[in-house]
Structure formats: C-alpha cells, structure tokens
Amino acid sequence: MSFQNRSRGPNPQDISSFGPSAVPDLRLAADDYGYLQSRGYGHKSTTKIVGDRYGLNTRQRTALQRIGAGKQEIDLRAGKAVRPNGLTGRSIAIDGFNLLISLESALSGGFIFKCRDGAYRDMASISGSYKRVKQTTSSIEMVADYLLSASPATISWYLDAPISNSGRLATLIREIGEQKGVSWSVELVADPDRTIISLPQIIAISSDSWVMDGSAAWFNLMEAILADIEAVRVVEV
C-alpha cells in the first residue's frame, strides 16, 4: 500500500470511547488517577482501581495512563516547561518518533489528549517498524516552519535505530530541512530517550514522561503547532 493511502486516524472504537459523552467520566477518572498517584500507588494498580470504578474499556484505560499524573509529576514538569520565546539561542533535542507520530495522528483525525501535566499525547504506537503515512511530510514541514520562527541555536532529531525504516525517515527529514532552509541534524541512536536525557542544558521536545522528567527543560511543541490547525480532535481531560 502506498503511503498516500495510509494515515493514523482514529480506531473505530475511539469515537464512542473519547467522544463528548465519554469525556465527563474520563475527567473524573483522571481526577482519581492523579489522587492515587500522588499517594504512591503504582500505575498498574491505579489503572485497575480507577478503570474498574468507571467501567473503562481497554482503550480508555490506556488513554488514562497517558492523561493522568500525580501532583509531584505535574509540578516537576511545570517547573521545567519552557515558554515559546525561551527557545531563541538554545539547543533543542527532538524525540523524533514521539513528536512525529503525534502530529501525524492529529492531522489524520486521531484523538489527541491535553493531559494533566500539560503535554499532548495520542493513542498511536509503533512496534518495530515505522510506516510513512500521507501526513508525514506535512508534519515535518510544520516542525520546520515553527522552529524557523523560534530561532534556536541548534536542532537535533533523534530516531530509534532499531526501528525499521528509521533510516529512510532520517533522509526525508534532512531533505525537508534543506528545502525549508532549516539547519538541523538527524541521528539514529539505540535509545533516543536516554540519549536526550544525557545531553546537558538542552531543551527536549517530547511528551514522553520519562524524558520530560529527566531532561533539564522541555518545550510543548505539539501545543504550539496544534494552536494553528483547525478541526483537530483535542480532548481536554
């Protein structure tokens, strides 16, 4: 199948799981999830307790783990968040697949969640192999356009080397950077999360909670880009 015929649109179950009628219970569930997390409960046990209480299905429970956060996590991430004007002259490290798949999902009509820690997360995932979709090029172009206006000192993309087709994606990102006049590098590494966290004084672009917590600072590029896109399915829970 050509990538022009592929997208990361919603699962058929998502309309009922995350539509307007489901949001009130999801908000209550996120409240309870955060309460238990703040008191030391594990993610697995918290998800079961809260999921059972509100009768959440499997997709909703997965979303809850991405949406919810304890007070300590929320405060830590808020303290590390960088404002848009804070990118100028700074070095940026992009968690490549994390950002790109979320943007592809948003442009494909998939549900995007504004989570309790402020990050925007999706329901898509990849397992061992990345497949380009119709929205891949436009997603990368949006990143380029925004970062051109933000004027960071350096921009580095990090992609998972073990994931199939990551080399082809790296080539595409480099080509779009040249076309847009953006000076950025693209590296294939064994573990982008650990690589980004190990870099001193960088601003991480990622919605991965481990990267957000471990980096010196992070920037919510998804929020900045989605603000200018109409008809995106953002669910604020």
What this model shows, in words?
- With about 240 residues, the protein is α/β, with parallel strands linked by helices.
- It folds into 2 domains: about 10-70; about 80-235, Rossmann fold (3-Layer(aba) Sandwich).
- The protein has 11 helices and 8 strands.
- The chain has helices at about 15-20, 25-40, 45-55, 60-65, 70-80, 95-105, 135-150, 165-180, 190-200, 210-215, 220-225, and strands at about 90-95, 110-115, 120, 155-160, 185-190, 205, 215-220, 235.
- Strands 5-4-1-6-7 form a 5-stranded parallel beta sheet, sandwiched between helices. A 3-stranded mixed beta sheet has the order 3-2-8, with helices on both faces.
- The longest helix has 16 residues, at about 25-40.
- The protein is globular and about 50 Å long.
- The protein starts with 13 loop residues before the first helix and ends with a strand.
Question: What's the number of extended β-strand segments?
Answer: 8
Dominant shape: globular
* Rounded Rg: 18 Å
Total helical segments: 11
Give the total of domains. Answer: 2
| Major β-sheet annotation | 5 strands, parallel
Spatially, the strands of the biggest sheet line up as 5-4-1-6-7
